[in-house]
Design goal:
The complex is a heterodimer of chains A (114) and B (114).
Chain A: E1 4-7, E2 10-13, E3 19-25, E4 31-38, E5 42-51, E6 54-57, E7 65-66, E8 76-78, E9 87-94, E10 104-105, E11 109-113
Parallel strand pairs in A: 2-11
Antiparallel strand pairs in A: 1-3, 3-8, 4-5, 4-9, 5-6, 7-8, 9-10, 9-11
Chain B: E1 4-6, E2 11-14, E3 19-21, E4 23-25, E5 33-38, E6 44-50, E7 56-59, E8 62-65, E9 75-77, E10 86-93, E11 102-104, E12 108-113
Parallel strand pairs in B: 2-12
Antiparallel strand pairs in B: 1-4, 3-9, 5-6, 5-10, 7-8, 8-9, 10-11, 10-12
The chains are: A mainly beta (114), B mainly beta (114).
């Protein structure tokens, strides 16, 4: 089954404790992206990657890091989480061939930083 | 800059009522336009899309027409069902940089009562 998976689905942590949220897709997509969803703000892009070893900042990259060492994986790293990073996070992927293609979203990771 | 504006929710309708969710976009570049739907506890799914002016996207009884003259992409359904209860997001491609990047509206919560 074609899908985007994220782990963990729920995470409660404390300020300053480094964490990683994993994202993996099995569709051989070149493009991957991370978003955060906050009430009243919709989805805002954190980082995206056009292909292996190619990453770029989205609208709200501060406090986050990403890496793209393999095509299927795109982990989101919070080196020193703060309470304002409490949010619902989504990973997404799409192919890059032809006209614009739909983005496939993971199920989300709900992060709480105390 | 590139942005989309959606009507604020929440929207509550009775089953079989007519639905309209308004979406307007900034007239920069030649964006593709999308409606995504988020069911409770899930990630976003593409509902429909339109890639150029006057295109009509349709899926599952929902429709939206790309109106360049009014910079709008309103979502409509003639007869909603309880199962349509979800959050709906309007989105557009950004006019510079990667064609894979999307900017989303703030989302509209729809509740359909039996």
């Amino acid at each position: 089954e074609a899908q985007v998976t994220q782990n963990p689905r729920y995470l409660i942590t404390v300020t300053g404790k480094k964490l990683t949220v994993t994202c993996s897709q099995n569709m051989n997509h070149e493009y991957m992206s991370w978003y955060r969803q906050d009430p009243g703000l919709g989805l805002r892009q954190i980082y995206y990657s056009m292909n292996v070893e190619v990453t770029d900042k989205g609208d709200v990259p501060e406090g986050y890091k990403v890496s793209r060492k393999e095509k299927r994986n795109f982990p989101l790293i919070l080196e020193s989480p703060s309470p304002n990073q409490t949010s619902l996070y989504f990973c997404a992927s799409s192919s890059t061939g032809g006209i614009i293609n739909e983005q496939f979203f993971g199920p989300g990771t709900r992060l709480t930083v105390l | 800059g590139d942005s989309v504006t959606q009507m604020e929710g929440p929207v509550t309708l009775s089953e079989e009522a007519f639905l309209t969710i308004n979406c307007t976009y900034t007239a920069t570049g030649y964006p593709s336009l999308f409606w995504y739907v988020q069911y409770p506890g899930e990630g976003l799914q593409l509902l429909l899309k339109a890639t150029k002016a006057d295109d009509k996207g349709s899926n599952k009884g929902f429709e939206a027409t790309y109106r360049k003259e009014t910079t709008s992409f309103h979502l409509e359904k003639g007869s909603v069902q309880v199962s349509d209860s979800a959050v709906y997001f309007c989105a557009r491609t950004i006019s510079s940089g990667s064609a894979r990047q999307l900017t989303f509206g703030s989302g509209t919560q729809l509740t359909v009562l039996p």
